[in-house]
Amino acid sequence: MYNGAVKGTEDLSLIASETVMARIAGGAGGKGAAQAMQGIGDANALGISDVVHLSYGDVFVCQFRHAKGSSVWSLAYSPLSHTVEDVAINVVPDNQQEPAPAPKKPAVEKPATPEPDTGRSTPAAPASTPPTPTQSQACEMFPDLC
Question: What Cα–Cα distance (Å) separates residue 122 from each residue in 66, 98, 99, 117, 125?
């Protein structure tokens, strides 16, 4: 999804709805995803911080670490259509302490679950993990999945 939206190297029409295509083209505050990411540089790490299960799909909260900041992508995936039905993107430059609140996304803190030690090193993640929306908040964000 990221490579197609930001780098233009993938055909998103195979995995994304028309709504997602429109949001990526001009959705991040009137900017397209590629233009919104220019200020923070290329992504160098990805983490899926959580999944919220809904009646008709799942919301994946993905956090990318960039050269000069981070971005949080909430992807609404439908197993019925096998596509990403909607997306919300929040860009956070390094000089900003906390992610700016995205519209219609109230934050709820969730206790951190320790990760099992696998003995493998992983890329450095952003300093803070984005809060995971509750089911009702995810339904407000992506009502078609509820």
Answer: 15, 23, 23, 11, 8
